[in-house]
Each structure stands twice: as structure tokens, then as C-alpha cells.
From TrEMBL:
It comes from Anisakis simplex (Herring worm). Belongs to the COMM domain-containing protein 3 family. GO terms for biological process: sodium ion transport. InterPro entries: COMM, COMMD3. This is COMM domain-containing protein 3. The lineage of its organism: Eukaryota, Metazoa, Ecdysozoa, Nematoda, Chromadorea.
Length: 183
């Protein structure tokens, strides 16, 4: 399996492969689900008479991952469990892969952005559990999701050791980003 390819499609396939094995028209279903993604506005709409929602999500999960990483059908086949459902997905992907890539390349998603942060130091005299007194850092982040105007507050507390671990993790992330931008 490729390290970038999500494990979700494989897990979904494993969960549904026995049920999918019973479907005589599995190849046709996968073809129609791919067609829905690339031609959904031409009258070919998904409805649950074609297949249940779980099967549709399984197919869409696999083809969107494959499209995201520009997989060819061979690489997709290597990334999925060996079963009839995977074969049907790969065959449908082979037919629609270029159009799927074009269609899905217009879809974007971003993580929430941190728009503000604040911190303060507090002294803990004694907790309910009888812990010793000491100082803790209270860290507050304000974030905004890309599809929203609402600010979500994320707050946590940590002692000096936890704060050091957090700083180390941030430094590792910074170094990784710098290395990626150099290559």
C-alpha cells in the first residue's frame, strides 16, 4: 500500500465485500457511481435504488483517494484488498479516471486556520486529587473553519514538561515543512 493512500477505502471494502459479492450487477453499480461523480448534473443521479449508501460511499472513497494521488488503475488495485468489489471499483476507475481527476481537482478543502492565540500562567495550589502545587500554562487558540465565519475556541492547560513536549513537536513540524519546501 502507498503511505499516502488513506486506509478508509480498504476498511470500507473489507466491511462490505461479502455483501457486495452477492450483487450480480456490481460492475454496473460501480460504473454508475463513477458516472454520477463526473456527470451528476445530466440526469444520472444517485438514488438508493441503485445501491445502499454504504456501498456508494465505499466506491466514492476509493475513487476520490485514487484521483487525489493521480493513481492509475494498477496502483489503485495494489492499494485495495483483493476481492470482487475492489475489482469492480478498479474497472470503473479505469473507464472514468481522467474525467474523475478533472472533476475532483476542482474540489478543495482546508483545515481550520488559527486566527488568534493567547496564553497565561496560573498557579495551582492543590487539586481535588491532592496533587502538589505548581504553575501551569493555559493556552488558547481561536480558529475559523474555511466554511464558516464562527470562531471556535480551543483551550488546554499544561505543565512545564508538557509545554516542552509541545514546543518540541512544533519544532519538528516546522523542520518538516522547511525540508518539504526545499525539495
Amino acid at each position: 500500500m502507498n503511505e499516502h493512500f488513506s486506509k478508509r477505502p480498504s476498511k470500507l471494502i473489507e466491511r462490505l465485500k461479502d455483501e457486495a459479492e452477492k450483487l450480480e450487477n456490481l460492475d454496473e453499480i460501480c460504473q454508475k457511481l463513477c458516472a454520477f461523480v463526473v456527470e451528476g448534473d445530466d440526469g444520472r443521479e444517485y438514488d438508493e435504488s441503485l445501491c445502499d449508501q454504504q456501498l456508494a460511499e465505499t466506491v466514492w472513497s476509493a475513487i476520490s483517494e485514487a484521483s487525489k494521488f493521480s493513481y492509475d488503475e494498477n496502483k489503485l488495485e495494489q492499494s485495495l484488498p483483493r476481492c470482487r468489489l475492489s475489482n469492480a471499483i478498479v474497472n470503473a476507475y479505469k473507464v472514468y479516471k481522467d474525467r474523475l481527476r478533472d472533476q475532483l481537482s476542482t474540489v478543495g478543502w482546508e483545515h481550520a486556520r488559527v486566527v488568534d492565540m493567547d496564553w497565561r500562567i496560573s498557579n495551582v495550589l492543590e487539586t481535588n486529587e491532592g496533587k502538589q502545587s505548581g504553575s501551569i500554562a493555559e493556552i488558547h487558540f481561536d480558529t475559523i473553519a474555511t466554511d464558516s465565519c464562527d470562531i471556535e475556541k480551543i483551550s488546554f492547560q499544561c505543565d512545564v514538561n508538557q509545554l516542552q513536549d509541545l514546543l518540541w513537536t512544533f519544532k519538528e513540524a516546522q523542520n518538516s515543512l522547511e525540508n518539504l519546501s526545499k525539495s
